[in-house]
Amino acid sequence: MSAQGWGRVVSVSPSAVREPIPHVTLSSARRPGLLAAFKTLAHHLAPDGITFNTLLTGLIDADHVRETGVSPEGVPAGRMGTIEEYGASPPSCAPSRLGTPRARASASTAA
Asked: Is 1 in contact with 7 (CB distance < 8 Å)?
């Protein structure tokens, strides 16, 4: 990615990063570390036009979430998100190459 002057890395992580979900200890424990790694990589690779974004989802209506007994109480929408909504989200965090300063400079030089 550095050689081509741009890149996008997107991580999708549940809200358990901020508020651990009962009974999923290992999953809840590792997620803050992933966020810290992304932030470190973002600072290091931003000059090369590489971005790192993490999409923090709300509660998603999935079997493993329902099994924890978590309810959508307190969720602004009053419901859990759907798997379809979850799947549609990451592309919006990965804009095209033309959004980077290096890519814009290359495009203007080629014109």
From this structure: yes
**Domains of the chain (ranges plus CATH)?**
7-110 (3.40.50.720)
Asked if 20 contacts 107 with a C-beta cutoff of 8 angstroms, the reply is no
Q: Maximum Cα–Cα distance for the chain, whole Å?
A: 58
Using a cut of 0.70, tell me whether the model's pTM lies above it. Answer: no
User: Token pair for residue 20?
Assistant: 């651990």
The Cα–Cα gap between 49 and 7 comes to 6
- CA–CA gap between residue 97 and residue 92 (Å, rounded): 13
* pLDDT tens, position by position, 19-41: 777 777 787 788 888 889 989 99
Distances 12 to 59, 86, 105, 107, 108 between C-alpha atoms, Å: 13, 9, 30, 31, 33
